[in-house]
Amino acid sequence: MTDDYATTFRIVDVDGDGLISVVELSRLMEVLGQPLSPEAAAAAVASIDRDGDGLISQEEFAGYLARGRTIG
Prior knowledge:
Elements: H1 3-12, E1 19-20, H2 22-31, H3 38-48, E2 56-57, H4 58-66
Antiparallel strand pairs: 1-2
Helix pairs in contact: 2-3
């Protein structure tokens, strides 16, 4: 993962558990002025989540961003 992706991931991963949850993604999007409904946030996480655990790992996050995708 590039340093930029790792830094961004750490900012979004508020609880520091190494994973981004639906709640963390929702909070990020709200701060960015693009709030998501709980359903939209869950769908966004599901679209990035490759291993089906309902969370976004650093690797999943970096892969998603490297493909030039955006959330929301």
